[in-house]
Task: inverse folding
């Protein structure tokens, strides 16, 4: 069974940093590109970042480019999101997500980790 | 970025009703080389992670009831629930994966009439 378990969220002051993790199990992690997607409280879904299976290709939403860094450790089956210069508008539930075998859409999601940026 | 527009934003329904919701994209999601539409539908219930219902505009995911039907092509797409059940009350999102950044619609919330 595919499992994605995020951690690392919490309350952080504006301008500070935070690093999220997503531990994957139940599949060959190194075979799949991975994504971070966030959802502000009571709002819709916003794709944040993508990293290819071997880390060769990385893409970011414009709203986080230059502040967030996605990375992965295939030996540890873990996806990361390093967030710096955090703003109040970054407050959200952060999900890691994986496409399905037909690569259409995000078939697997974690339960999310909540990041609250507030003084 | 490709803008995804969903209508209506909310809809009150009764059990057993047929429901349709729309998703329009600001540019075509049909890739000419493989004739596939890069469009997915998700269901999100309160307190839960989104669940992928349909990919490639009309391919139902394994385990998704056949009352959920995705249709459309190009820029206009529809999610139909042929006979709404109480457990279908949720927010439904469409998403395009034709181009980076992936973008989502704002959602259609199904509520009980």
Result:
């Amino acid at each position: 069974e595919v499992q994605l378990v995020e951690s690392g969220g919490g309350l952080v002051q504006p301008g500070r940093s935070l690093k999220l993790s997503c531990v994957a199990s139940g599949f060959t992690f190194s075979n799949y590109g991975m994504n971070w997607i966030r959802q502000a409280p009571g709002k819709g879904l916003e794709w944040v970042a993508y990293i290819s299976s071997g880390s060769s290709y990385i893409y970011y939403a414009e709203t986080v480019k230059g502040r967030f860094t996605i990375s992965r450790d295939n030996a540890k089956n873990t996806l990361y999101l390093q967030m710096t210069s955090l703003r109040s508008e970054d407050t959200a539930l952060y999900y890691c997500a994986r496409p399905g075998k037909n690569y259409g859409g995000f078939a697997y999601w974690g339960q999310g980790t909540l990041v609250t940026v507030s003084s | 970025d490709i803008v995804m527009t969903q209508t209506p934003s909310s809809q009150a329904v009764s059990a057993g009703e047929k429901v349709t919701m729309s998703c329009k994209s600001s540019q075509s999601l049909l890739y000419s080389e493989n004739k596939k539409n890069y469009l997915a539908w998700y269901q999100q219930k309160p307190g839960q992670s989104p669940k992928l219902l349909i990919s490639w505009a009309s391919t139902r995911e394994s385990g998704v009831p056949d009352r959920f039907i995705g249709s459309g092509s190009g820029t206009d797409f529809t999610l139909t629930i042929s006979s709404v059940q109480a457990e279908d009350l949720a927010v439904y999102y469409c998403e395009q994966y034709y181009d980076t950044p992936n973008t989502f619609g704002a959602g259609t919330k199904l509520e009980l009439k």
